């Protein structure tokens, strides 16, 4: 396994972390409906880039959206699975990040609006992701030209989608990319007090609430729920990004280690003090560097 570490954090990350910790400290309780409403209000302050086309489509019953940049190759696709704890929809920040990735990699992207918990617990969201991939293949996109990527819960869904496809005998995508992936929904995933304190963004009680909403009646050690428990034999090349102070740090490193033990071409990049899914925070120098590295990996592994 190739493990890389970023340089010392930028002053922008240090300032951002101080602000995030203050907000986190003054925030109590978590409610899914209120969080959805808050994100809708925040989205009004951001705009998608005009240079990228956003086109609604339907993937065999799963609604979603194409992102097509001027640089996008018509035959190469990133199936991007957004984060949000399995309970929250994609944000404008997600779209801006994926749009940048399209421009840098030369791929276009399809972002499915998979079903969300608690209205639709496991396996509904995962089934929609698998359906979206098969729809791409049935539409004529070669698996060697498809990369699956996702952040946070979407990172977990990326691994679970690849695992489900492998177990069902489907042709696999060229590679997988996981940003701050939450790979373990079992009780074994509980961090210690120091980890909870160090994470500048994610409240542990919020993660627990979304975990319960998504699990439903599923067993938390089911690999399709908690992909850290997969036998990774046969998986395509995998790239993990995670911040060193994240609650989910062990989720990424444990999954990467298991993939490496199974013989998978695995790379993990640890970003010093970077907050959860910092790649979506375009004002950070680390975000720009990370997206360039991801784009290079996507272009290198995702055939032509």
Can you describe what's shown?
By secondary structure, the chain is α/β, with parallel strands linked by helices. 39% of the residues lie in helices and 17% in strands. It has nine helices and nine strands. It has helices at 11-25, 32-43, 92-105, 124-138, 153-168, 193-198, 204-215, 249-261, 285-301; strands at 2-5, 53-59, 62-68, 77-81, 108-112, 146-151, 175-179, 238-243, 266-271. Helix 3 (92-105) packs across helix 9 and helix 4 (124-138) packs across helix 5 (153-168). The protein is globular. The model has no long low-confidence stretch (mean pLDDT 94).
Looking at the overall shape, the CATH architecture is 3-Layer(aba) Sandwich
End-to-end Cα distance: 26 Å
Overall radius of gyration: 18 Å
Number of helical runs?
A: 9
Give the strand line-up of the largest sheet: 1-9-8-7-6-4-5-3-2
Secondary structure category? alpha/beta
CATH level-four homologous superfamily name: Alpha/Beta hydrolase fold, catalytic domain
Overall, the morphology is globular
User: How many domain regions?
Assistant: 1
Low-pLDDT stretches: none
Task: Tell me the total number of β-strands.
Answer: 9
From the 3D structure, determine the CATH topology.
Rossmann fold
CATH class value:
Alpha Beta
What portion of residues is helical?
Answer: 25-40%
Proportion in β-strands: 15-25%
Largest sheet: 9 strands, mixed
């Amino acid at each position: 396994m190739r493990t890389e570490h970023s340089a010392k954090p930028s002053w922008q990350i240090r300032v951002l972390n101080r602000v995030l910790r203050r907000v986190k400290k003054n925030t109590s309780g978590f409610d899914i409906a209120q969080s959805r409403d808050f994100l809708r209000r925040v989205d009004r302050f951001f705009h998608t880039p005009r240079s990228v086309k956003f086109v609604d489509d339907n993937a065999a019953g799963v609604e979603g959206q194409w992102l097509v940049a001027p640089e996008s190759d018509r035959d190469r696709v990133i199936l991007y699975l957004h984060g949000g704890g399995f309970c929250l929809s994609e944000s404008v920040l997600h779209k801006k990040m994926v749009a940048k990735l399209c421009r840098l990699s030369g791929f276009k992207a399809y972002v499915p609006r998979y079903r969300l918990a608690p209205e639709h617990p496991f396996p509904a969201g995962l089934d929609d992701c698998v359906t979206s991939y098969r729809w791409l293949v049935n539409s004529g996109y070669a698996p060697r030209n498809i990369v699956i990527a996702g952040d946070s819960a979407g990172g977990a869904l990326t691994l679970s989608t690849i695992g489900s496809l492998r177990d069902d005998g489907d042709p696999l995508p060229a590679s997988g990319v996981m940003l701050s992936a939450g790979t373990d929904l079992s009780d074994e995933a509980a961090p210690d007090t120091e980890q909870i304190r160090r994470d500048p963004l994610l409240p542990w009680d919020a993660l627990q609430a979304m975990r319960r909403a998504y699990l439903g009646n599923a067993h938390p050690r089911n690999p399709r729920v908690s992909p850290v428990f997969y036998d990774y034999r046969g998986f395509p090349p995998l790239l993990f990004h995670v911040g060193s102070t994240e609650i989910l740090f062990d989720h990424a490193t444990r999954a990467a280690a298991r993939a490496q033990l199974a013989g998978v071409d695995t790379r993990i990049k640890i970003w010093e003090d970077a907050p959860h899914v910092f790649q979506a925070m375009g004002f950070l120098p680390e975000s720009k560097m990370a997206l360039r590295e991801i784009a290079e990996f996507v272009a290198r592994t995702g055939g032509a």
